[in-house]
Amino acid sequence: KPAEPAEPPKPLPPLTPQAQRLAAELRQAVAAALKGQPQLQAVLLSQADKAVGPAWAPTKELLQGLAGEPLVKSYLARRGS
């Protein structure tokens, strides 16, 4: 008997204001740590390639914090962001 297709995951509930602040602080901290680190940025971009659907929005926000970096700038232009 063929397996039943799994139900798609349900969207996560919206973040609370406190969680939104913490997420923004985390994105800023990661962006600050990756500035001037092209090898680490390349690792992040390899993961960003896998970010689709709802996962793309927070990934894009993180990358926009690094938009001044040539590697990230090129990636965002290529991805159409």
Tell me what the structure shows.
With 81 residues, the chain is mainly α. Helices cover 59% and strands 0% of the residues. The protein has helices at residues 17-34, 38-48, 56-64, 70-79. The longest helix is centred in the first third of the chain and has 18 residues, at 17-34. The mean pLDDT is 90.
Percent of residues in helices comes to 55-70%
Poorly predicted parts: none
Radius of gyration of CA atoms, rounded to a whole number: 16 Å
Content-based structural category: mainly alpha
Task: Assign an overall shape.
Answer: globular
How are the elements arranged and paired?
Layout: H1 17-34, H2 38-48, H3 56-64, H4 70-79
Structure summary:
With 81 residues, the protein is mainly alpha-helical. It has helices spanning 17-34, 38-48, 56-64, 70-79.
Name some characteristics of this structure.
single chain; about 80 residues; mainly alpha; globular
